[in-house]
Structures are given as structure tokens and as C-alpha cells.
Prior knowledge:
Elements: E1 4-9, H1 13-25, E2 28-33, H2 36-45, E3 50-54, H3 62-71, E4 79-84, H4 89-97, E5 102-105, H5 110-119
Parallel strand pairs: 1-2, 1-3, 3-4, 4-5
Helix pairs in contact: 2-3
Amino acid sequence: MDSRTCLIVDDSRIIRKVARRILEDLSFDVAEAADGAEALDHCLAAMPQVVLLDWQMPVMDGLTFLRRLRDLPGGRAPKVVFCSVETRAERIAEALSAGADEYVMKPFDGEILLAKLAEVGVVQSPS
């Protein structure tokens, strides 16, 4: 099986660490970025299959990153899962219309993340 790649984009080192552990348990090769600008550079160098994306970040926020990602050559391919404390329906709708595939509330755990990744079709859903 080909290795699966995920880019975790979050300005919180703790969140990146937690997400990395979950994703590595699911056999993903994981890369990290602390903000949208860093993430965009990464995607230009190597497009990941999945992006786990925070909303509020310095330098470039998640929504700006997402719109730029979707404009890149091949930038429509990655499945993007927004991870945020944002709970307002209109903000979530904005993320989805900007090109996010799924949305997960923080704090999340392995079970929630696995379910979302299964929904977007990048992992087998737990039977």
C-alpha cells in the first residue's frame, strides 16, 4: 500500500503533537506547519493527501490558506479537514464553501478524527 500523507497545520504545538500521534497510529506520514504560509510552501513542494487545518493562526489563517491551496495546480486533490473551536454554523458553512471537505471541533480525539477521515474516504471506517 502506498504511504498516506497528512499535513497538520496548527499554530499550537500541543495540537500538532496530539494529531501527529493519532495520524501515525493510522499509518500516515505526517508533516507539520505552524501557519498557512508555511503550509502553502509545503504543498508547493509536496502535495499531501490530507490536510488537517486550524482556523485561527498568525501569518496566514486557515481560510486564506484553503482558498490559495484550492487555486494551486493539484490543489483540489487533498482532503481538507478543518479543526477549530469555531461553533457558529455560518462560519462552518464558510469553511465548507471555501473548499473544506469536513469539519471537526476541538478538542478532538482519535475516534472523532478517524470517523472524519473515513467520511472523506482516506481511511477505512472502523467496523
